[in-house]
Amino acid sequence: MTPTVLIADDDRSIRTVLTQALGRSGYQVRTTGNAATLWRWVEDGEGDLVITDVMMPDENGLDLIPRIRRVRPDLRVVVMSAQSTLMTAVKATQRGAFEYLPKPFDLRELLAVVARALASPTAAGDQPPPEPRDADERLPLIGRSAAMQEIYRTVARLTTTDLTVMINGESGTGKELVARALHDYGRRRGGPFVAINMAAIPRELIESELFGHERGAFTGATSRNQGRFEQAAGGTLFLDEIGDMPQEAQTRLLRVLQEGEFTAVGGRQPVRANVRIIAATHRDLRAAIRQGLFREDLFYRLNVVPIRLPPLRERVEDIPLLARHFLDKARADGLPFKSLDSGAVDRLRAYRWPGNVRELENLMRRLAALHAEETISADALDRELTETVMTVEDAGGETAEPLARAMERHIRQFLAAHEEGLVGNDIYDRVIAEVERPLIQLTLLATRGNQIKAAAMLGLNRNTLRKKIRDLEVPVVRGVA
Ligand SMILES: Nc1ncnc2c1ncn2[C@@H]1O[C@H](COP(=O)(O)OP(=O)(O)OP(=O)(O)O)[C@@H](O)[C@H]1O
């Protein structure tokens, strides 16, 4: 028998397009512009699949899902929405929608979803978790780019599981924010969210920080100490900068993940681990594995569901929204109201954002606090962006790692890699090149490719700069509009 698809959307053109596309694919289609009619059809036992919009004149489509699931648990519901936020994705998924499609969507994708929805058997007892009662409507993640919508969909799906997640992305792309959203909307939201940053803890203390220690386990261990695994019991453990974890701690963590229990340093009694693990790194862990710096078996244990957060320059369409959001936030914190003129917005879109969303947030705050006029122009931004490049290490505020410490860490790893068999006879040049290259590249970006200005800023002779650009193969960008 031909399956019948019920469609509810108050936009006539969407109804027409869907009717044609589904009709051509051999489905029967019934459409309506309101929720009440859809509900009547469902109650009457009609249709094999529902596709519904969220905002309809008489009712919110999301509110219909639990009712549909109650009267017809086998009827799959696909939600489409122009309100493509994390909350819509999370609500649709948690109320039991089969799939969530942000508008505008690709018709081929819709047809694929319809085919999947009709083909896959419904799991009995496959009940969605109860929704957070007073669901916080404030949006934790801003951005409507296709890349962010894909992330919302993944986050929404992951809130119904305890799977281990590995978040990869440059510094300041929102890795911790995503980890928190996974916790706050997930099954373990009643438990604690405990974060530990591997790069911020002295390597010899990492194991005791993670697993705790008994009194007298080592010099200075004057009392028993709870580790983060224990503190996070029933909740989520966020292992930030996992790529910086020392080898011995990696081995121990792997064992804990394999065996599901851990023992405090100096302790004997194993304790069952009851945490959901979310790891994050800005490093290329596959490269670290090749260099012998990261255990491959640990990587596969952690990389169960990978999420890649794209750098801000790959989702420029989110920049105006984010900038507005941060200016509003600054205002809510008591700073003066500011707005950006269209030239300023263009500048923001053209900039490369090496510090990603964090850099944008800091810039907006700085402008809100220090800029004299209410409207921020392109010229004002040009001045700020040049300075930003020089102080990018400060982008994280007080917690940012001083450049010298970061270098020390990198060089140590570099040397460790060489110890393990890779022969090197040009380490000096290679390390210097590692520093020189981003320095020159970012200065050129700040001057929009103007080499005369860049040479002046760097205090280098123009010809020296030109030679370095050639030798280091720095890509040359010119006059970003
Ligand atoms: N999509 C977003 N919407 C709103 N704010 C964001 C978004 N992404 C990041 N931010 C903000 O940017 C700042 C940096 O985010 P976060 O700390 O999550 O990044 P990160 O990738 O974990 O950085 P790092 O690797 O340096 O620790 C935070 O203040 C966060 O609130």
UniProtKB/TrEMBL annotation:
<feature type="domain" description="Sigma-54 factor interaction">
    <location>
        <begin position="141"/>
        <end position="369"/>
    </location>
</feature>
<dbReference type="InterPro" id="IPR011006">
    <property type="entry name" value="CheY-like_superfamily"/>
</dbReference>
<feature type="modified residue" description="4-aspartylphosphate">
    <location>
        <position position="53"/>
    </location>
</feature>
<keyword id="KW-0805">Transcription regulation</keyword>
<dbReference type="InterPro" id="IPR025944">
    <property type="entry name" value="Sigma_54_int_dom_CS"/>
</dbReference>
<dbReference type="InterPro" id="IPR002078">
    <property type="entry name" value="Sigma_54_int"/>
</dbReference>
<dbReference type="Pfam" id="PF00158">
    <property type="entry name" value="Sigma54_activat"/>
</dbReference>
<keyword id="KW-0238">DNA-binding</keyword>
<keyword id="KW-0597">Phosphoprotein</keyword>
<dbReference type="GO" id="GO:0043565">
    <property type="term" value="F:sequence-specific DNA binding"/>
</dbReference>
<dbReference type="InterPro" id="IPR027417">
    <property type="entry name" value="P-loop_NTPase"/>
</dbReference>
<dbReference type="InterPro" id="IPR025662">
    <property type="entry name" value="Sigma_54_int_dom_ATP-bd_1"/>
</dbReference>
<dbReference type="Pfam" id="PF02954">
    <property type="entry name" value="HTH_8"/>
</dbReference>
<dbReference type="InterPro" id="IPR058031">
    <property type="entry name" value="AAA_lid_NorR"/>
</dbReference>
<keyword id="KW-0547">Nucleotide-binding</keyword>
<dbReference type="InterPro" id="IPR010114">
    <property type="entry name" value="Transcript_reg_NtrC"/>
</dbReference>
<protein>
    <recommendedName>
        <fullName>DNA-binding transcriptional regulator NtrC</fullName>
    </recommendedName>
</protein>
<dbReference type="GO" id="GO:0005524">
    <property type="term" value="F:ATP binding"/>
</dbReference>
<dbReference type="Pfam" id="PF25601">
    <property type="entry name" value="AAA_lid_14"/>
</dbReference>
<dbReference type="GO" id="GO:0005737">
    <property type="term" value="C:cytoplasm"/>
</dbReference>
<keyword id="KW-0902">Two-component regulatory system</keyword>
<dbReference type="InterPro" id="IPR025943">
    <property type="entry name" value="Sigma_54_int_dom_ATP-bd_2"/>
</dbReference>
<dbReference type="GO" id="GO:0006355">
    <property type="term" value="P:regulation of DNA-templated transcription"/>
</dbReference>
<keyword id="KW-0010">Activator</keyword>
<keyword id="KW-0804">Transcription</keyword>
<dbReference type="GO" id="GO:0000156">
    <property type="term" value="F:phosphorelay response regulator activity"/>
</dbReference>
<feature type="domain" description="Response regulatory">
    <location>
        <begin position="4"/>
        <end position="118"/>
    </location>
</feature>
<keyword id="KW-0067">ATP-binding</keyword>
<dbReference type="GO" id="GO:0006808">
    <property type="term" value="P:regulation of nitrogen utilization"/>
</dbReference>
<dbReference type="InterPro" id="IPR003593">
    <property type="entry name" value="AAA+_ATPase"/>
</dbReference>
<dbReference type="InterPro" id="IPR009057">
    <property type="entry name" value="Homeodomain-like_sf"/>
</dbReference>
<dbReference type="InterPro" id="IPR002197">
    <property type="entry name" value="HTH_Fis"/>
</dbReference>
<dbReference type="Pfam" id="PF00072">
    <property type="entry name" value="Response_reg"/>
</dbReference>
<keyword id="KW-0678">Repressor</keyword>
<comment type="function">
    <text>Member of the two-component regulatory system NtrB/NtrC, which controls expression of the nitrogen-regulated (ntr) genes in response to nitrogen limitation. Phosphorylated NtrC binds directly to DNA and stimulates the formation of open promoter-sigma54-RNA polymerase complexes.</text>
</comment>
<dbReference type="InterPro" id="IPR001789">
    <property type="entry name" value="Sig_transdc_resp-reg_receiver"/>
</dbReference>
<keyword id="KW-0535">Nitrogen fixation</keyword>
<keyword id="KW-0963">Cytoplasm</keyword>
